[in-house]
Design goal:
This protein is α/β, with parallel strands linked by helices. It is 46% helix and 11% strand. A 6-stranded parallel β-sheet has the order 1-9-6-4-2-3, with helices on both faces. A 3-stranded mixed β-sheet has the order 5-8-7. Bound molecules: fe (ii) ion (FE2).
Length: 401
C-alpha cells in the first residue's frame, strides 16, 4: 500500500512559547493580521499578551472575537470577504477547535474566492490558504496541526469537513499557559476528542508505521495524564495533554478518522450534539468493532491504555480496552451514553443512514438521499473494518441511555 505523510507545520512548544508569536508572524511574512478568537478567550491575560507581542513586532491587527461552539460558514464567508477587502495577509487563531476551524476556513476562502461550503470535501480548492498561526487553548481538537477544517452549514444542518495539503497551518504554538481558562468539566470534552483522534488513526485501514507510532504515543500520553490534568492544576500533566492532542492529530491527519467521527457527524448536524460527546460516547464501541479484524494491533493498544496484558486472551484485551475508556470517563465526568434529548431512539435509524456519505464527502453529502440506504449499505469510512447501516444502527442503539 502506498501512503503519504504530511507534517509541514512548525511546532513551537513549552511554557513561555506564546511570547514568540510576534517573531513567528514576522518570520512568516505577516504584516496585517486577523486575530480570530471567542468571547471567553479574547479577555484572557494570555490573549492580551499575544496581541502585545504582535504589536511590538510591528504587526497591524484586525480582530474577530465572535466564534461560538461550531465554526459557522456564515462567519467564515463574511470574514474572508473582510480579509480580501482590507488586504490582510495572515490569520492567527487563539482558541479551541471551533476558533481554529473558523480561522482556517477564513484563510482558505480569502485566497480561493468562493464560499466555504464549496471548499468542503477533499482538496476542493487550488490556491494556498493565507499564512496561519494557531494557538490552541484546549487539549484539544489538534486543529493546530491539521489540514482539515470542520464547519457547520447552518442552512442545510450539515457538518462538513474540508481541506487538503494547501490548508496546513504554518505554525502552532503550544503553551500550557493557555489551558487555564476552562473549568474541569469543559476541559474534559476536547481531551476526549483528542483521545478519539489517536485511537481512530490507529484503527484506520490506511494507517502506516509512521502514523501508528505517533498515534500510540499520543494515546499513551493522553490516557496516562488525563485524570491528573482534569482533576488538578498539575502543569506538567496539562502540557502532556497539549502535546498528546497535537500528536494525535498528526496521526489522524494522515491516517484519517473512523467510525466515531463518521457516525457522530449527522448527530452534530441534525441534532446539534457537541462533537466531543458524539465521538467520545462511541469510542469504546468503535474500539471493539475494529480490533476484531486487527489481531496484531490489540496488544499495543491495550498497553498504551495502561492495561496489564499478561495472561489475557486477545478477546479479553479488547474488552479491557473498552473498559479502560469507560473507567477514564467515570473519573473525569464524561458520559458513556447519549441522553434521550441528545439522541432520541426513534431517530437512530435515520442517523445511521445519514452517516453513509462519511466524514470526507464535503458538500456532496447534501445530494445523498438517506431513503436510498438499506441494511447492507456501507458507511464511507477509512476504518479497518467495513460497517453497514444495520451495524451502525446497532452501535448507536448500544449508546442509548
Ligand atoms: Fe474530533
Amino acid at each position: 500500500m502506498i501512503t503519504t505523510f504530511f507534517m509541514p507545520t512548525r511546532i513551537v512548544a513549552g511554557a513561555g512559547s506564546l511570547a514568540t508569536i510576534g517573531y513567528l508572524a514576522r518570520d512568516l511574512g505577516m504584516s496585517r493580521v486577523l486575530v480570530v478568537s471567542d468571547p471567553v478567550i479574547s479577555v484572557q491575560a494570555f490573549h492580551g499578551a499575544a496581541l502585545t507581542s504582535l504589536g511590538e513586532a510591528g504587526i497591524d491587527l484586525w480582530r474577530f472575537d465572535e466564534c461560538g461552539i461550531d465554526a459557522r460558514c456564515s462567519h467564515i464567508d463574511d470574514q474572508g470577504e473582510r480579509v480580501r477587502r482590507d488586504g490582510i495577509d495572515g490569520v492567527i487563531c487563539i482558541g479551541g477547535g471551533s476558533v481554529m476551524c473558523t480561522g482556517k476556513g477564513i484563510a482558505i476562502v480569502a485566497t480561493n474566492h468562493k464560499p466555504m461550503r464549496d471548499c468542503t470535501g477533499v482538496g476542493q480548492f487550488d490556491r494556498r490558504a493565507l499564512p496561519m498561526i494557531m494557538v490552541p487553548t484546549t487539549a484539544g481538537s489538534g486543529s493546530e496541526v491539521s489540514q482539515w477544517t470542520i464547519v457547520k452549514d447552518e442552512e442545510r444542518h450539515l457538518k462538513l469537513l474540508g481541506g487538503g495539503p494547501l490548508s496546513f497551518p504554518d505554525a502552532a504554538i503550544l503553551d500550557p499557559v493557555t489551558l487555564g481558562s476552562l473549568p474541569m468539566r469543559v476541559a474534559a470534552l476536547p481531551a476526549v476528542d483528542a483521545l478519539t483522534h489517536g485511537v481512530e488513526a490507529y484503527l484506520s485501514a490506511i494507517a502506516s508505521p509512521l502514523t501508528d507510532a505517533i498515534a500510540l504515543g499520543a494515546v499513551q500520553q493522553q490516557y496516562g495524564s488525563l485524570r491528573v490534568s482534569i482533576n488538578s492544576d498539575d502543569a506538567a500533566a496539562r502540557e502532556a495533554n497539549l502535546i498528546a492532542s497535537c500528536m494525535a492529530n498528526i496521526a489522524c491527519g494522515n491516517a484519517r478518522l473512523g467510525h466515531g467521527h463518521a457516525l457522530s457527524l449527522p448527530l452534530e448536524g441534525h441534532l446539534d450534539l457537541p462533537h466531543p460527546y458524539g465521538v467520545g460516547v462511541l469510542l469504546p464501541h468503535v474500539i471493539v468493532f475494529n480490533l476484531a479484524v486487527l489481531p496484531n494491533k490489540v496488544r499495543p493498544l491495550a498497553e498504551a491504555l495502561g492495561i496489564e496484558v499478561a495472561g489475557l486472551t486477545r478477546a479479553a484485551m479488547i474488552e479491557a480496552c473498552a473498559d479502560s475508556i469507560r473507567s477514564l470517563y467515570a473519573d473525569i465526568g464524561f458520559p458513556t451514553r447519549f441522553t434521550a434529548e441528545q439522541l432520541p431512539a426513534q431517530r437512530v435509524r435515520e442517523m445511521a443512514t445519514r452517516a453513509v456519505p462519511g466524514l470526507y464527502a464535503g458538500i456532496a453529502a447534501q445530494d445523498f438521499d438517506p431513503a436510498t440506504a438499506g441494511d447492507h449499505t456501507l458507511i464511507a469510512c477509512p476504518s479497518a473494518r467495513k460497517m453497514t447501516v444495520s451495524q451502525a444502527q446497532a452501535m448507536l442503539e448500544r449508546c442509548l441511555g
